[in-house]
Amino acid sequence: MFKAIKVDKGNSGYTATLEEIDEKMLPEGEVTVSVEYSTLNYKDALAITGKSPVVRSFPMVPGIDFSGTVVSSRDSKFSEGDRVLLNGWGVGENHWGGLSQRARVKADWLLPLPEELSTEDAMGLGTAGYTAMLCVKALAEHGVRPEHGDILVTGAAGGVGSVALYLLAKRGYRVVASTGRSADSEYLTELGASEIIDREELNKPGKPLGKERWVGAVDVVGSHTLANICASTKYGGVVTACGLAQGMELPASVAPFILRGVSLVGIDSVYCPLEKRKAAWADLAKELDVVRLQSVTETIGLSETVSKAQALLDGKIRGRLVVDVNR
Asked: What is the pTM of this model?
């Protein structure tokens, strides 16, 4: 038996509860993992609260990532005792996920944990940190360098935003942080923000083209915010999009793309190819500052995840929520 958060939908409605589950109930997969840490991400909060149809089948154990140790493996790529991590692949949506003390998954979904990281460090970064690194690498791969100008990070006090801000500042970029919480100004400055703007500047319908303000962006918000970011991006700039906190629609004009040569780059962390995953995690392991990571994370127990989910959706959580599934 093991403990897990189980989401279900039936005659009594949508429920998310901490339960004891028989290991025989685990889904198919070549590798069984003793999970040590998971995280509470925006998508997990949607799955737990039922605010969006994230869960594809019921019952479901949410949790889009986890780290832990291999208990058994029917695939030669992994052996008992190996430290591993997982991000995405539909885990926590259509395959039981990481908010659990046990997980069984396909071997191709797992990555060996970089030697520099503990299982707790890995989830301190988690899918949010991994996604942030994919965005940062995309900007660099598209030729955006620190001397070219400012980089905007939206949702800067959140999971992806906090890590992206830190990574960009560490690489020498001047970062403009967008947030809706003025109380987080000191926190964002400590992470490396050179300038802080209120999200209200970006989240309303805007003009097809605005004043050129930044050469690149990491956006987790979507909707009008993303449209306004593109409209205010400098000639030849690059905008990376990885979230939809404001909405999935994009009420934008083609003007930034055909008049300023702006590039909009989509960042997918769920089905990202293996080699790109390995490269992102290798860079995270090299650039990680454990003390800085601890300053942007809060560790909670498995039993606290349901109550924290709504707070996360309400924008009341700063940084990263790591879940110790054995606490």
From this structure: 0.91
